[in-house]
Each structure stands twice: as C-alpha cells, then as structure tokens.
Amino acid sequence: MPIYEYECESGHRFERLRSIEERYKVICPECEESVHILISLQGKHLLAESFTVIGHDGTVLSKTQTTERTPLKIRKKSGKVVNA
C-alpha cells in the first residue's frame, strides 16, 4: 500500500498508509475538514554512501565515497537531489 500525503483546507499536512481504493476516504485528524492529496516525490527519505556525477553522454565525471550514511535533500521544485 502506498503512503499518501494530504493537506486540509486549514493547511494541516499529514501522511497515511492507504489502499488505492481508499485514498480519497480521508479527513483531517486535527480539524476534521476535507483534504486533498499532495503530489510529492517518491524516495524523499534517501540515504547515500556514495555520490556519482554522470555527464549527459553517460560518462562518469566524478565519484565520491563516504564512510557515513548522509541524508539527502531533494529540492521540491526542481526534483534535484543535493547533499544535505
């Protein structure tokens, strides 16, 4: 089952694990108003141990290995993944 992100008319945001058939049968848990589904990026909670930069022609431009798992930040407007 997918996790859907919702927002109510008052601006409260929350997530719910719902079946596809029941994705619209949700009300806000805080104010009980109607909600709409937000379009969000999948995999927004990424962790990386290495970073690879690939050019337009498919060649590897640079590669970095880390010893820590680094949380990534995704820019919502562009969808680009950047190091946090």
Describe the structure.
With 84 residues, the protein is mostly beta strands. The chain folds into two domains: 3-38, no CATH class; 47-83, no CATH class. The chain has no helices and six strands. It has strands at residues 3-8, 13-17, 35-38, 47-54, 60-74, 81-83. Strand 5 (60-74) and strand 6 form a beta hairpin. The mean pLDDT is 76.
In short:
With 84 residues, the chain is an all-beta fold. It has strands spanning 3-8, 13-17, 35-38, 47-54, 60-74, 81-83.
Q: What is the radius of gyration computed over CA atoms, rounded to a whole number of angstroms?
A: 18 Å
Q: Tell me, what's the shape?
A: elongated
**Domain module count:** 2
The share of residues in extended strands comes to over 45%
Which parts are unreliable, with pLDDT below 50 for 5 consecutive residues or more? none
Number of distinct beta strands: 6
Question: Average pLDDT, to the nearest integer?
Answer: 76
Q: Kindly report the oligomeric state of this protein.
A: single chain
Percent range of helical residues: under 10%
Structural class, from secondary structure content? mainly beta
Strand order of the largest sheet: 2-1-3
Annotation field: number of helices = 0
Distance between the termini: 29 Å
Succession of helices and strands: EEEEEE
Largest sheet descriptor: 3 strands, antiparallel
